[in-house]
Amino acid sequence: MSAMNRRGLLLAGAGLAATVFASPRRALAQAAAPSGPFTLPALPYAFGKNEPHIDAQTMEIHHGRHHAAYVANINNAVKDHAQVAAMPLEQILARLGEMPESIRTVLRNSGGGHANHAMFWQIMGGSGGAPGGELAGAITRDLGGFDKLKADFNGAGARVFGSGWVFVSVDRTGKLAIVSKPNQDTPLMDGQHALFGNDVWEHAYYLKYQNRRPAYLEAWWNVLDWSAIQARYLQARAGSLKI
Q1: Residue range of the domain that includes 210
Q2: Residue 23: inside a domain
């Protein structure tokens, strides 16, 4: 090989490496893009939107790796099951017992993870505060008021052993309840909807909070978007809330 050709190959390789390392988010997005009926929803705000309460690096890894992996897994599971692939995710999760046994565990874990995280991104990116309108009334009626909701919700989240979630669930009548779930289980599996919920898997908080889950749970209220949660509440009442 001539010196000129060797130089050209070296320059091309260096250029490729520079592109990858200079644009890790672009490379990550390309690598994570799954093929199939389920897609990774775009994060509706910048990775740093929830700073300082949730750091940008955690948001980027959580969305672009963890959530993307759930989407890829469920797409892989349904690729040979056309009837399942054609179903909305909320129906799959509500009818898990009817799903093919060979893929049921993947649907539960990765399908649940996809639904939980798609909800999770929607209800953050705000500035916290307190809810208003019909939602505030429902919280007072069913959960004893906002301060009691926060205390009970944080307590339930702290008591989750290992990995899981804590939710405020909502039914078609608008009734609210605090429920905790292991792993990636979701209220959809019980005929309910998650109005909002917090991820207490360590990957959601460990870079910033290490083992201080209660501190993460307390800080998380500062990034809630109550207008988005109110919209979900009204959709639940109308029967149009999906995940």
Answers
A1: 54-243
A2: no
Q: Is the pLDDT of residue 12 over 80?
A: no
Specify if 223 maps to a domain: yes
pLDDT at 109: 98
The count of domains in the chain is: 1
Cα–Cα distance for residue pair 225/204, rounded to 1 Å: 18
- Confidence at residue 224, expressed as pLDDT on a 0 to 100 scale: 98
Q: Note the pLDDT of residue 10.
A: 36
Q: Is residue 194 in a domain?
A: yes
Rounded Cα distance between 108 and 89, Å, is: 11
Read off the CATH number of the domain in which 214 is found.
3.55.40.20
Q: What span, in angstroms and rounded, lies between the C-alpha atoms of 176 and 157?
A: 17
User: Can you state the angle between helices 24-32 and 68-78, rounded to 10 degrees?
Assistant: 20
* Residue carrying structure tokens 């649907």: 107
Report the 10 Å Cβ neighbour count for 80: 11
Residue 161, classified by CB atoms within 10 Å of its CB into exposed (0-12), middle (13-18) or buried (19+), is exposed
Helices (H), 23-67: 24-32, 56-61
CA distance 160 to 219: 17
Does residue 108 sit within a domain? yes
